[in-house]
């Protein structure tokens, strides 16, 4: 008599539903709108842009300002070498050391007394060069010291 249709009891054709039997009322539900899925809000990372690095500018005038003027000794305070040479500046000392024999150098730079370092310190006023000349034992090493210190001068 009754057949089952989608979980509801529906009367078959031509037959009526007895009154004692409860009937299930079905109501159509209004279609509900599905809420659109919420978009995830992601916070954007704020990055600070670094300022471009500035290249250091080299100014040639600045480098020249650090250089010292080369000192020239007058005739009375010039250095008289035992072989007859007369020296009046660090450049002259460099040239003399280039050709100087070891015996002549040792005559002026013996023991604790170094005539070259005393002259460079007192007359040419370069105490750093003088202190390095005390350590030099040969004309070649003394020339190396003088050449290194000449780079600090505006020649």
Give the helix level as a range of percent: 25-40%
Q: What percentage of the residues does DSSP assign to strands (E)?
A: 5-15%
Uncertain parts: none
Based on DSSP secondary structure assignment, what is the total number of beta strands?
A: 8
Describe the structure in your own words.
The protein starts with a strand and ends with a strand. The chain has a domain at 69-154. With 155 residues, it is an alpha+beta fold. The protein has a two-stranded antiparallel ribbon with strand order 1-2. The protein has helices spanning 60-66, 90-99, 102-108, 115-122, 127-135, 139-150; strands at 2-5, 8-11, 68-69, 79-80, 86-87, 109-110, 113-114, 153-154.
Summary keywords:
two-stranded antiparallel sheet, single chain, rod-shaped, 155 residues, alpha+beta, two-stranded parallel ribbon
Q: What is the secondary structure topology, with strand pairs?
A:
Elements: E1 2-5, E2 8-11, H1 60-66, E3 68-69, E4 79-80, E5 86-87, H2 90-99, H3 102-108, E6 109-110, E7 113-114, H4 115-122, H5 127-135, H6 139-150, E8 153-154
Parallel strand pairs: 3-8
Antiparallel strand pairs: 1-2, 4-5, 6-7
Helix pairs in contact: 2-6, 4-5, 5-6
């Amino acid at each position: 008599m009754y057949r089952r249709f989608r979980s509801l009891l529906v009367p078959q054709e031509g037959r009526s539903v007895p009154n004692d039997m409860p009937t299930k009322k079905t109501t159509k539900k209004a279609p509900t709108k599905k809420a659109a899925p919420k978009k995830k809000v992601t916070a954007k990372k704020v990055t600070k842009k670094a300022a471009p690095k500035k290249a250091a500018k080299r100014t040639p005038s600045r480098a020249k300002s650090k250089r010292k003027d080369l000192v020239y000794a007058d005739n009375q305070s010039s250095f008289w070498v035992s072989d007859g040479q007369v020296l009046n500046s660090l450049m002259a000392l460099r040239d003399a050391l280039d050709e100087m024999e070891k015996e002549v150098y040792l005559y002026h730079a013996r023991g604790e007394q170094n005539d070259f370092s005393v002259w460079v310190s007192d007359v040419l006023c370069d105490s750093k060069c003088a202190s390095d000349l005390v350590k030099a034992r040969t004309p070649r090493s003394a020339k190396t010291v003088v050449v290194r210190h000449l780079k600090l001068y505006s020649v």
